[in-house]
């Protein structure tokens, strides 16, 4: 072996040796796996970072199980360790979809209240059959006390309600919910199942924006005067708001043919239709969740089981674990930066290789500071 070859061989050996001595905390790690959940579809950290709320969506063969879903409340310590506080903090829910916390006070509704989006036309009755009388199914919002779980207000926005969001449009099958810092409310609408209600309606997938000033009308069961629906060509799945940019980021999925997902963003101050949407990445595999890292990188959860970052307009780079790790049907992910600078990600895993629902869990990922 000549001197040049010896030099590069030695350099390669030293690189491997250095890499092997790096502490584990310099890589993303699965720091916890918490079991005992029931199809956990969404995870959300409270604004103060002290709690993690998990949406458990009970499903049967013919649809959502009526009054069988619940919200779990987990405690989070200063180091990001998560422990169960109350597994069934809010019970007897039908089709809970997603939740967020009010950033401002709305009349008698305090700042920090939980706004929970609920409802779907695909509900299974006690006999295991699809419900045909959807008059007993609410599609809309439930406002809850985050400390006690007590219901503060319930607002039916579906076809069975006298409230219309705009013109003759109702909420049909919500997919996600999010506030911006000003208190404007965004609700993802899949537009699925409008033909199943007695008052039939053509589904229009998109994202509703209800201005903060109009939410008090809504909470008083009056139709909002300023509610806009931005149409999307695919079904919106998840969304998150980044205050530093005043931008709403959201995921849509195309379900016909080969399932594919795309990511867009739109300014809260320029919510003027599909032409104002900016494309981040498109034509990926199906996407289930989105969060924004502290320095602005977009983090996605894919139905394939990976967490990933966009790389160009049509590609991604996975968040690399050593050894390699795939999540089982990840749902809507939650992300929080600790005072130490480390980042904690909660990943709901909706299915498991184990039978009887055992193993459906929340995986906690810890990353070093960016």
Task: Give a topology summary.
Layout: H1 3-21, E1 29-34, E2 40-45, E3 51-56, E4 59-60, E5 63-65, E6 69-76, E7 82-93, E8 96-101, E9 114-118, E10 123-124, E11 140-144, E12 151-156, E13 174-179, E14 185-189, E15 206-210, H2 212-219, E16 227-231, E17 235-242, E18 247-254, E19 260-267, E20 278-284, E21 287-292, E22 298-302, E23 307-310, E24 316-318, E25 334-337, E26 343-349, E27 361-367
Parallel strand pairs: 5-10
Antiparallel strand pairs: 1-27, 2-3, 3-6, 4-5, 6-7, 8-9, 9-11, 11-12, 13-14, 14-15, 15-16, 17-18, 18-19, 19-20, 21-22, 22-23, 23-24, 25-26, 26-27
Protein name: SMP-30/Gluconolactonase/LRE-like region domain-containing protein
Keywords: Signal
Organism: Pelagicoccus enzymogenes
Would you mind describing this structure in some detail?
This is SMP-30/Gluconolactonase/LRE-like region domain-containing protein. It comes from Pelagicoccus enzymogenes. Keywords: Signal. The chain is mainly beta and 370 residues long. The protein has a single domain, classed as TolB, C-terminal domain (Neuraminidase, 6 Propeller). Helices cover 7% and strands 42% of the residues. It contains two helices and 27 strands. The protein has helices spanning 3-21, 212-219; strands at 29-34, 40-45, 51-56, 59-60, 63-65, 69-76, 82-93, 96-101, 114-118, 123-124, 140-144, 151-156, 174-179, 185-189, 206-210, 227-231, 235-242, 247-254, 260-267, 278-284, 287-292, 298-302, 307-310, 316-318, 334-337, 343-349, 361-367. It has a four-stranded antiparallel sheet with strand order 1-27-26-25, with no helix packed on it. It has a four-stranded antiparallel sheet with strand order 2-3-6-7, with no helix packed on it. The chain is globular and about 55 Å long. Residues 6-25 have low confidence and may be disordered.
């Amino acid at each position: 072996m000549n001197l040049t070859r010896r030099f590069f061989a030695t350099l390669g050996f030293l690189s491997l040796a250095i890499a092997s001595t790096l502490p584990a905390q310099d890589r993303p790690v699965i720091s916890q796996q918490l079991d005992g959940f029931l199809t956990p579809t969404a995870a959300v950290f409270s604004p103060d970072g002290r709690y993690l709320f998990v949406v458990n969506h009970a499903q049967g063969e013919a649809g959502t199980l009526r009054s069988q879903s619940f919200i779990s409340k987990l405690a989070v310590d200063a180091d990001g360790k998560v422990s169960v506080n109350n597994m069934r903090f809010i019970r007897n829910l039908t089709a809970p979809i997603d939740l967020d916390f009010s950033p401002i006070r709305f009349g008698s509704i305090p700042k920090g209240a939980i706004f929970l989006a609920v409802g779907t036309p695909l509900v299974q009755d006690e006999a295991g059959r699809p419900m045909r009388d959807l008059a007993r199914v609410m599609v809309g919002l439930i406002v809850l006390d985050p400390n006690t779980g007590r219901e503060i207000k319930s607002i039916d926005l579906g076809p069975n309600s006298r409230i219309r969001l705009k013109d003759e449009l109702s909420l049909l099958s919500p997919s996600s919910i999010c506030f911006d810092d000003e208190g404007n409310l965004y609700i993802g609408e899949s537009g699925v199942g409008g033909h199943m209600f007695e008052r039939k309606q053509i589904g229009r997938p998109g994202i509703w924006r209800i201005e903060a000033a109009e939410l008090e009308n809504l909470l008083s069961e009056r139709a909002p005067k300023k509610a806009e629906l931005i149409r999307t060509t695919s079904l919106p799945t998840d969304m998150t708001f980044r205050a530093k940019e005043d931008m709403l980021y959201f995921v849509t999925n195309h379900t016909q043919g080969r399932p594919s997902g795309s990511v867009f963003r739109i300014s809260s101050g320029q919510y003027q239709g599909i032409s104002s949407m900016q494309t981040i990445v498109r034509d990926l595999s199906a996407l289930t969740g989105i969060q924004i890292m502290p320095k602005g990188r977009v983090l996605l959860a894919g139905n394939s089981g990976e967490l990933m970052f966009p790389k160009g307009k049509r590609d991604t780079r996975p968040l690399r674990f050593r050894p390699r790790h795939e999540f089982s049907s990840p749902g809507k992910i939650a992300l929080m930066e600790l005072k130490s600078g480390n980042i904690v990600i909660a990943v709901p895993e909706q299915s498991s290789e184990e039978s009887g629902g055992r193993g459906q869990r929340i995986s906690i990922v810890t990353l070093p500071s960016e």
